[in-house]
Structures are given as C-alpha cells and as structure tokens.
Design goal:
Layout: E1 10-14, H1 27-39, E2 44-47, H2 59-73, E3 79-82, H3 88-101, E4 105-108, H4 117-131, E5 136-140, H5 142-145, H6 151-160, E6 164-169, H7 175-186, E7 194-197, H8 204-210, E8 214-215, H9 222-234, H10 237-254, H11 260-270, H12 288-308
Helix pairs in contact: 1-2, 2-3, 3-4, 4-6, 6-7, 8-9, 9-10, 10-12
C-alpha cells in the first residue's frame, strides 16, 4: 500500500469500531463497515481514533483490528492508524506493527500535559525521531486534548520534521489557522502539507474554501463529505453547499458530547452497516427521546435529499 504523502486529499473516514451487545469486537461487522465506507466513495480509512473507541481496546485488539481492516481493503484504499499512547515506546511499537501490515501512515495526538509552544514542538520532534521513516499525521484537536497548537508551532514542526505529512485540523474556531498555514506555504515559507479536517464535517465547506484538502472525520453518512469534497474539487461550490445543508441538522446532533458516538452508531446499525449500536463500556447510550430526535432528523433529511436530487 502506498505511503501517506503531503499530496493526500479527499475523505479519510474516521471508522467506528463495531462491538457486539456484550462488548466483544464484532469481526464480521468490521468487514461490513470497511465495505460500506468503500462503497460510499471514501478516499481512505482512519482507524483506532478517539471516536473509534481506541482507548477502550487492548493492545492485541488494536493490532488485530488494524490487520483485519488492512487485509479487507487489500491495497485499494490507504489506511491511517491512530497510535497515540502515553509514551513513545508503545506508540513506536504499534506504529511499526501496523506499518508492517501495510498501513499507509499513523496519526498522533499530543499529551494533555502539553502546555507551551516549546513543549508542543519538542513532543512532535520526538515523535518524528521515534517513528523513523513512518509518515504521520499531526492531530490538532484542542476540544478533546486541551492542547492548543499555534500555526507558527505547526510550521516549525513541518520545517524540521519531514515525516509530518498531514495536519488533521480540528481546532474550533479554526478557519483562520487553515488560512495562516496556507498563506505560509503559498509564500514558500514552509513546506505544503495535506490538511484534512475533523469535527464531524460541521465546517467542511468553509474549510475547503480556506484551502483544506478534504476531511478526516466520522459521520454516519460519509456520502455527505464525499459529495462536498468532490463538488468543491470540480468548482461547483453551490452544489457542495446544497449537499452539506441537507445533512447538517443530523451532523450537528451527532456532535453532542456524551451521546454523539451513540447517535452515529445507532444510524450505522439502522443502515445495516453494523449489527449493534453498542459502545464498549464506559460509553453513552441514547434515550427513547434521543432516538425520536434522530428519527425525526432522518425523515427530514430524506425529504430534503429528494428535493435537491441527491
């Protein structure tokens, strides 16, 4: 499988991890999930992320899931694997393991103890040293990590660590960060790297307008992100926004802390992608009222998609 590069673009879906009702990994569900994402036109897969419930997996489960996914795509799509860990040694161990399996690259979030610009730079410089030649994604997700990384720090990392090939941008608000990074690369001040955006795609059209190359996030309808990115690439900005608008109410609902992932898994189960909507404990669950909300949103979404012919 080709390695991840600075030229990556499109939609790298953040995959869920399917579990059975009793919390075991649903291996057949992993296969169906991979097939579903490929059928919907995603460019690549990102597994073992925060919303893939990676912290709830054993190290052996993490490696086994990575192998199952990589084997299932059989080189047709690139696979990025989250390897964030409390220390560099387990991070390097998992990264080496999945790269040997055929992964295209890995993703790393900063530790919550990172407080200053120099600490952020030092951490990612050490990541570059630890991972050797493995290409990696800098995950910038302050809402979850509580670590804010300024554009100038990202630029410094990009200059000094050539294996950093992508920024997973999830700052909020963060459109100006994309603009600042693109301005620097346009001027030749720093190497241009891929920027794929998160936050469930809530700001994807605006992020594309600021210079993002696509999305690296999850949503129970990946075809929304595929449609937005493809139409922006063709220059049909109006169509991109029409597609986005049709899905926005459900995407907004899915971004709630606590039940957002439960909502995503509920819809994926309803679509037949996974057998169970269960999260591995500890995890949130939808109430009857929550389910009624989701069903109402789905009905309105269906109607709107029919109106715009999508």
């Amino acid at each position: 499988m080709p390695l991840l590069t600075e030229d990556a673009k499109g939609v790298y879906i953040i995959a869920v991890t399917p579990f059975t009702d009793d919390g075991a990994v649903d291996w057949n569900g992993v296969d169906r999930m991979v097939d579903f994402y490929e059928e919907k036109g995603v460019t690549g897969l990102t597994i073992l992320g925060l919303l893939g419930e990676a912290p709830k997996l054993t190290s052996e489960e993490s490696r086994s899931i990575a192998k199952r996914v990589i084997d299932r795509v059989a080189g047709r799509l690139p696979v990025v694997v989250g390897v964030t860990a409390p220390g560099l040694a387990p991070m390097r161990e998992l990264a080496e393991s999945v790269m040997d399996m055929g992964a295209s690259g890995v993703m790393v979030a900063p530790p919550w103890t990172t407080k200053t610009d120099d600490q952020a730079y030092a951490f990612y410089a050490s990541v570059g040293d630890a991972l050797g030649k493995t290409p990696w994604v800098l995950q910038d997700y302050p809402l979850t990590t509580n670590v804010t990384i300024a554009p100038k720090v990202i630029e410094r990392i990009v200059r000094d660590v050539p294996t950093c090939v992508m920024l997973k941008h999830e700052d909020w608000p963060g459109l100006s960060k994309i603009g600042a990074l693109r301005a620097s690369s346009d001027k030749g001040e720093v190497r241009r790297i891929s920027i794929l955006c998160g936050n469930g795609g809530l700001f994807l059209p605006e992020e594309m307008a600021r210079g993002a190359d696509g999305a690296m996030t999850g949503f129970c309808y990946p075809e929304m992100m595929v449609g937005v990115v493809e139409n922006y690439a063709k220059g049909d900005v109006q169509r991109a926004h029409d597609i986005f608008d049709a899905y926005l109410p459900l995407a907004r609902y899915e971004q709630q802390q606590g039940i957002g992932l439960a909502s995503r898994k509920y819809v994926l189960a309803k679509r037949g992608v996974i057998s169970s909507a269960a999260l591995r404990k500890p995890g949130g669950a939808l109430s009857n009222a929550d389910i009624a909300d989701v069903e109402r949103l789905l009905a309105r979404q269906t109607k709107r998609l029919q109106e715009i012919g999508a």
